[in-house]
Design a protein that fits this description.
- A hairpin with a 2-residue loop joins strand 6 and strand 7.
- By secondary structure, the chain is of the alpha/beta class.
- The longest helix has 15 residues, at 105-119.
- The relative contact order is 0.12.
- The protein has a five-stranded parallel sheet with strand order 2-1-3-4-5, with helices on both faces.
- The two termini are 18 Å apart.
- The protein has helices spanning 10-22, 33-42, 59-68, 84-92, 105-119, 152-163, 171-178, 189-201; strands spanning 2-6, 26-30, 47-51, 74-79, 97-100, 127-129, 132-135, 140-143, 146-147, 208-210, 214-216.
Length: 217
């Protein structure tokens, strides 16, 4: 899942981003509203975690611009004010969910995952392809009942491939949705990750390389 965290408090933003990355998400940061809109225009995010009380360009204006610009990203708005009137106002700006500060990190993760599911076509809670099972919520993957010790990036790539339902997923899309903006598009990162994933999945091989197109399970 590709997530943009928009928060002007840099230490909090870094802490949230680090926690989400440990959950296997690809996370970019923006410390103000202008940077948020710039990144959202360039990158395809599944979820934007947006602090409402941003200095300069207010979070309400960022949220409205995302909605009016046709962004497919779901918006989770954060604010120190948790009154009903504030929640109603935030949702009226185009936000999809609302979480008052301070919040429990586990709840933040749960809400992001729920919004991420809504950003994509409906999928079953557990993805199954033959003898391969993947549970995104529990971060567990297995083949023939054997636990697969996948790294966060390997898990993300496998989830994207299995969610495609047998369709081909290009290396560019895997890089776009599985890594943050710091990833070098000219590296062999995706190829290396798929290679490691193949070894961990074992034989017979489940990931097919489609020439000039990408990969599929």
């Amino acid at each position: 899942m590709r997530v943009l965290v928009v928060e002007d408090h840099e230490e909090l933003a870094e802490t949230v981003a680090a926690g989400l990355r440990r959950e296997g998400m690809a996370v970019d940061l923006a410390l103000d509203g202008h940077a948020a809109l710039e990144r959202a225009t360039v990158n395809g995010y599944d979820v934007v975690v947006l602090d409402r009380d941003l200095p300069g360009l207010h979070g309400d204006r960022v949220c409205r611009a995302l909605a009016e610009g046709g962004s497919r990203a779901r918006v989770l708005m954060l604010t120190a004010s948790g009154t009903v009137a504030d929640r109603v106002a935030g949702l009226g700006m185009g936000a999809d969910d609302y979480l008052p500060k301070p919040f429990a990190f586990t709840e933040l993760v749960a809400r992001i995952r729920a919004l991420g599911r809504r950003a994509q076509p409906a999928l079953p809670p557990v993805l199954v392809r033959g003898d391969l099972r993947l549970d995104p919520a529990r971060r567990v993957a297995s083949r023939e009942g054997r636990h697969l010790p996948l790294s966060p990036k390997e898990f993300a790539v496998l989830e994207l491939l299995m969610a495609a339902g047998g369709a081909v997923v290009s290396a560019e899309e895997l890089l776009e949705r599985g890594w943050d903006e710091a990833a070098d598009p000219f590296t062999q990162t995706v190829k290396v990750t798929v290679s490691r994933l193949r070894r961990k999945l074992g034989d017979p091989s489940l990931i097919e390389t489609v020439a000039q197109a990408g990969y599929r399970v």
